[in-house]
Design a protein that fits this description.
The chain is an all-alpha fold and about 110 residues long. The radius of gyration is 20 Å and the shape is elongated. The N and C termini lie far apart (about 60 Å).
Length: about 110
């Protein structure tokens, strides 16, 4: 049931872990009276509050987590595996590349 982002309009879609987007969850919590009927009414509005691109990014990320756990990795190793596919790599603004540091040592 991973076709959430590409489901045709009006089709009932099963929400799985791939769609646990913080902004959508926040919307549902703020507009919730803890009944199933209210959830059914608010789910389309919550999905509309998040762009399709964001849903797809989270979907792919959750698939990576599921594949890591299905492969028998521990939580820490799964996190390392998932980070390998990340499009954002943190680079410290205080770090000097090794090649530049070598120029100052000479």
């Amino acid at each position: 049931m991973w076709q959430i982002a590409s489901a045709p309009p009006g089709q009932v879609v099963s929400i799985t872990t791939g769609c646990q987007i913080p902004r959508m969850k926040k919307y549902l919590r703020e507009n919730c009276d803890y009944t199933f009927n209210t959830l059914k009414q608010n789910m389309p509005l919550a999905l509309a509050s998040v762009s399709i691109l964001t849903i797809r990014k989270w979907e792919h990320r959750m698939i990576r987590w599921m594949e890591a756990y299905e492969g028998g990795l521990s939580a820490k190793n799964a996190q390392i595996q998932v980070k390998k596919f990340s499009s954002r790599q943190y680079k410290s603004h205080r770090r000097v590349p090794e090649a530049v540091a070598a120029l100052f040592d000479a």
